[in-house]
Specification:
The chain has 214 residues and is mostly helical. Helix content is 73%, strand content 4%. The chain folds into two domains: 2-70, Winged helix-like DNA-binding domain superfamily/Winged helix DNA-binding domain (Arc Repressor Mutant, subunit A); 75-211, GntR ligand-binding domain-like (Four Helix Bundle (Hemerythrin (Met), subunit A)), CATH 1.20.120. α4 runs antiparallel to α9 (190-211) and α7 crosses α9. The protein has nine helices and two strands, in the order αααββαααααα. It is globular.
Length: 214
């Protein structure tokens, strides 16, 4: 029974996270747990588990006697998230470029194809597929703690990535940057992969500063 509940909670977690990332849940209103449970066709127990996990992930905040709220996006948070990514992610991408097996290289290519597919047909999945792609460039490094930290930062980045891609032309630029990055990564050019990863993250942050008024 507990295995079923955890599986259901995981599914709810993914659905609600997508609603947060795409702005479907308002920031200034408490999440109506009864209404959301009815909408999803689940009981409140696995829903509460999913909401608690989303709070741990930094996407929700809870207030005593008021419930859960979507954590507001801010220029300050974007600065912190992307500064942390810049401090560890490019080096991990470089290490992974050298360590990746052929199977891991294939997986990375497949995640980029899935991202491109989402960009043309499933826009609400772009942020998640973007995370999959960036993590595929990191996991082969074999550095477990670094990979876990980057994945946490990627989760926190998703709303900002979605925001960043709103203006026309941004998706085309991201596609080009991803294509160049994976080509040097597959070629095991660690030095250039590190530089391109850093430039890609920095460029996204520069755009977000303008969008968020920093």
């Amino acid at each position: 029974m507990s295995i079923v509940v955890r599986t259901l909670s995981e599914q709810i977690f993914s659905i609600v996270r997508e609603q947060i990332v795409t702005g479907q849940l308002p920031v200034d209103q408490a999440i109506r747990q009864d209404a959301l449970a009815n909408e999803l066709g689940v009981s409140k127990i696995p829903l509460r588990e999913a909401l608690a996990r989303l709070e741990q992930e930094g996407l929700l905040v809870s207030q005593a006697n008021r419930g859960f709220f979507v954590r507001p996006m801010s220029a300050e948070e974007a600065e912190e998230i992307f500064a942390l990514r810049l401090s560890i992610e490019p080096a991990a991408v470089a290490a992974a470029a050298l360590a990746a097996t052929e199977q891991q290289q294939k997986i990375a290519s497949e995640t980029l194809a899935a991202l491109d597919q989402a960009a043309t047909a499933q826009l609400d999945e772009v942020a998640a597929r973007n995370r999959d792609f960036h993590m595929a460039l990191v996991r082969p490094s074999g550095k477990l703690l670094t990979t876990q930290l980057i994945e946490r930062l990627q989760v926190l980045s998703e709303r900002y990535v979605y925001k960043h891609l709103e203006p026309a032309g941004r998706e085309d630029r991201a596609h080009l940057e991803h294509d160049i990055l994976i080509s040097v990564w597959l070629a095991r050019d660690a030095k250039r992969a590190k530089a391109l990863a850093a430039a890609h993250i920095s460029g996204t942050l520069a755009d977000l500063r303008r969008q968020l008024g920093r």
